């Protein structure tokens, strides 16, 4: 067991890895804590794995994980968290834009009693149009929908207490929503400004192309945080509203038919509503929408119970795990 586990997803970062390892060790040597550094090769197509192995050969405290293929940043973070054993887990990117020198500041904030401390790239060194602007919009939307308002959900530099992060299961692109998911399981969240450097090597591997997937995952997170144990309240409400409007239309059709029978004319002029599309829409709304949404809610209830009671399956496949010989 260690006091700290540093988890770093690596994808085609052969040039950054040596400098990253040196920077992390330099930051951790100043702390009187035991630690491990977990590097996860997310199916890199360059020499990242070979470079990682070379670094682990000459440095202690390293654990290396190699995926069988590219599974994505969320899967790499999940694997690193699952395979580590530190009481505190710290995540950061491998591209040298996050600064390991900020790790002590994260730990100081964590020591104040928080369960999660998230970094805020206050002076972000990225282009405005395709990086900063989408991030600003996304942060506002995520904060509004989850109720956990952070300046920078996208910053990978974060610190988590093991007892909280171990209760969060990651899928899709959900690594950016971890603070909100930790709040959902009862954790407390804080945010501090951290340094951010311009990329030194290569190009970003996880860009704006993920926007639509992130939006869909945000819907999932909102559902999990609000209705994960009671989905009938989502679909059931829609079904009841459809049923209400169907009953209203049915009553309108019936009243006009009654008025036409005894009053001699239709309320809206021309043919009776019973001869118009209302007569088709009414049963369609009741049978096609109302009942279907209610049944869908009941089916979701069964699926939810199956999900919570089933065995956990990982979202990645590991080819190899290595540890430093002098660990």
Structure in words:
With 327 residues, the protein is an alpha/beta fold. Helix content is 47%, strand content 14%. The mean pLDDT is 82.
Write the layout of secondary structure elements.
Layout: E1 4-10, H1 17-28, E2 35-41, H2 48-58, E3 62-67, H3 73-83, E4 88-91, H4 103-110, E5 116-121, H5 128-146, E6 158-161, H6 162-165, H7 178-184, E7 189-194, H8 211-227, H9 232-263, H10 278-309, E8 318-323
Parallel strand pairs: 1-2, 1-4, 2-3, 5-7
Antiparallel strand pairs: 3-8, 4-6, 5-6
Defining traits:
single chain, 327 residues, eight-stranded mixed beta sheet, 8 strands, 47% helix
In short:
The chain is α/β, with parallel strands linked by helices. The chain has helices at 17-28, 48-58, 73-83, 103-110, 128-146, 162-165, 178-184, 211-227, 232-263, 278-309; strands spanning 4-10, 35-41, 62-67, 88-91, 116-121, 158-161, 189-194, 318-323. The mean pLDDT is 82.
């Amino acid at each position: 067991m260690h006091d700290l586990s540093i988890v770093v997803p690596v994808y085609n970062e052969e040039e950054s890895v040596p400098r990253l390892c040196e920077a992390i060790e330099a930051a951790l040597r100043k702390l009187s804590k035991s630690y491990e550094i977990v590097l996860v090769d997310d199916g890199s197509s360059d020499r990242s794995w070979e470079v990682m192995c070379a670094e682990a050969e000459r440095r202690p405290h390293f654990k290396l994980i190699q995926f069988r293929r590219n599974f994505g940043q969320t899967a790499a973070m999940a694997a690193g968290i699952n395979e580590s054993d530190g009481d505190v887990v710290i995540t950061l990117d491998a591209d040298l834009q996050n600064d390991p020198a900020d790790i002590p500041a994260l730990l100081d904030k964590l020591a104040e009693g928080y369960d999660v401390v998230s970094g805020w790239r206050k002076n972000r060194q990225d282009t405005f149009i395709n990086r900063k602007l989408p991030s600003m919009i996304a942060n506002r939307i995520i904060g509004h929908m989850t109720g956990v308002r952070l300046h920078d959900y996208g910053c990978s530099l974060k610190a988590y207490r093991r007892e909280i992060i171990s209760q969060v299961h990651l899928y899709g692109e959900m690594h950016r929503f971890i603070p909100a998911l930790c709040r959902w399981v009862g954790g407390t969240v804080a945010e501090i400004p951290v340094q951010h450097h311009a990329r030194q090597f290569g190009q970003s591997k996880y860009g704006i192309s993920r926007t639509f997937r992130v939006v869909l995952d945000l819907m999932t997170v909102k559902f999990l945080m609000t209705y994960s144990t009671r989905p009938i309240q989502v679909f059931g409400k829609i079904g009841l509203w459809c049923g209400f409007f169907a009953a209203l239309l049915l009553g309108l059709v019936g009243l006009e038919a009654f008025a036409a029978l005894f009053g001699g004319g239709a309320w809206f002029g021309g043919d009776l509503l019973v001869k118009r599309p209302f007569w088709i829409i009414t049963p369609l709304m009741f049978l096609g929408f109302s009942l279907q949404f209610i049944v869908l809610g009941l089916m979701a209830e069964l699926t939810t119970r199956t999900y919570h009671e089933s065995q956990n399956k990982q979202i990645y496949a590991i080819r190899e795990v290595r540890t430093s010989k002098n660990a």
